[in-house]
């Protein structure tokens, strides 16, 4: 028996394959630099949400629109690559966790710079 659920294993596999398909099969100028960060598959394996980040934040909406428009093509490619009876339907979304992490890093950097400026002020006295 496997240590984790089948949907989690399929999620990992779908993330890898979708990343490869987007990188090698879809050649479109508007995509730019896209990173597939994770995939979440429902327990019944019928639906998959694929999370991504885009290097150019202004292009995010265009990239999402393009990938959601080509979801049926990507699903077809997955069907040829995976040995599954039914390939999940795909929905692409922006991974909010990355932006959340950036905000936390910025807050920590601000705290660190404030702390160092306070220590510099204390050294003067």
Key structural traits:
single chain, 125 residues, alpha+beta, GMP Synthetase, Chain A, domain 3, 2 domains, three-stranded mixed sheet, 4 helices, 55% helix, 18% strand
Q: Could you report the average pLDDT, rounded to the nearest whole number?
A: 86
Sheet bearing the most strands, described? 3 strands, mixed
Main sheet strand line-up: 1-2-3
Q: How big a fraction of the residues is strand?
A: 15-25%
Number of helices: 4
| SSE run | HEEHHEH
Structural class, from helix and strand content? alpha+beta
Distance between the termini: 66 Å
CATH fold-level name of the largest domain: GMP Synthetase, Chain A, domain 3
Helical content stands at 55-70%
Extract low-pLDDT stretches. Answer: none
Number of strands: 3
Query: Which outline best applies?
Result: elongated
CATH class of the largest domain: Alpha Beta
Radius of gyration: 20 Å
Structural features, described:
The protein contains four helices and three strands. It has two domains: 6-94, GMP Synthetase, Chain A, domain 3 (2-Layer Sandwich), CATH 3.30.300.20; 96-125. The model has no long low-confidence stretch (mean pLDDT 86). The chain is elongated and about 70 Å long. The protein has helices spanning 6-24, 60-69, 71-81, 96-124; strands spanning 34-41, 47-54, 89-94. It starts with 5 loop residues before the first helix and ends with a helix. A hairpin with a 5-residue loop joins β1 and β2. The chain has a three-stranded mixed beta sheet. 55% of the residues lie in helices and 18% in strands. The protein is α+β, with helices and mostly antiparallel strands.
